[in-house]
């Protein structure tokens, strides 16, 4: 039997919950700041890392939006995305469905075209050079208005073939899914898939409304569904995927400690849970480190790791034929 790190790396996996802006490593942040003539409030890379002190979602978001200011040109968005894709390659991620937050950039004067072109070029190059497939997800910022989300969707329509779904992220409390019911209906009518962050810090009621009012295909996070037995039964019956992010949840104190995380209990009860990294540059690990944390703190078995990898493929938006082929490869590892 090979060791767990090698086993996890060799399992073909999909990543379904990754914010590209959250993959901005301190070293690249420094490099882009220098390239763009921006003065960061940090002396060096160590100082950037030292500033990553947060213990809830809002404190994290304040730092994360600040960091994104160094992203200015198409090349910057390419470099950001490419660096993430190299991590995917090294960790056995064969398919990824990353989020980008257009409003974080358009609201500071960067054009939608600049970001979508840089991101898409890197995703396309990964397909040919790294053998990694991808579908991009356009995420609305929920602390802003539904009106602003409509404007963002409109702005994106000339590039509609470059993203597959819309999502919903940022400050959860006080911004329930139903605030975006009409813009999600419009996105669905246009043929997009939909996902939404719900039940990270917010209550199970937010997961219910993401399902019933936004009609989402997947729930991002969703860990607080564990508190609601009726909701758990629905997730199991309908096999609704949850894109869970263990290191994120412990850094943001959704769980006090990794040993308290409920993901493996949900897995064993038949919930379609998956493992993802969320904002790896901020939370201390990419997808393989998230799997390893479950092994180290929760004694995840090889069979559970394999099932989580299979779930990641099943929960993706890939065509059935490709799903079956990757799942066969997972069974052969
Ligand atoms: O985990 C998250 N939750 C909400 N918004 C986010 N934006 C980046 N990461 C997150
Ligand atoms: Zn997230």
Automatic annotation (TrEMBL):
Residue numbers annotated as active site: 200
Entry annotated with the keyword Transport: no
Catalyzed chemical reaction(s): adenine + H2O + H(+) = hypoxanthine + NH4(+)
Site feature location: Important for catalytic activity: 221
GO cellular component: cytosol
E.C. no: 3.5.4.2
Annotated CDD domains: ADA (cd01320)
Binding site for substrate: 279
Keywords: Hydrolase, Metal-binding, Nucleotide metabolism, Zinc
Gene3D superfamilies linked: Metal-dependent hydrolases (3.20.20.140)
Cofactors required: Zn(2+)
Any Gene Ontology biological process: nucleotide metabolic process
Role according to the record: Catalyzes the hydrolytic deamination of adenine to hypoxanthine. Plays an important role in the purine salvage pathway and in nitrogen catabolism.
Family of this protein: Belongs to the metallo-dependent hydrolases superfamily. Adenosine and AMP deaminases family. Adenine deaminase type 2 subfamily.
NCBIfam families in alphabetical order: aden_deam (TIGR01430), PRK09358.1-6 (NF006850)
Protein name as it appears in the record: Adenine deaminase
Species in which this protein is naturally found: Neptunomonas qingdaonensis
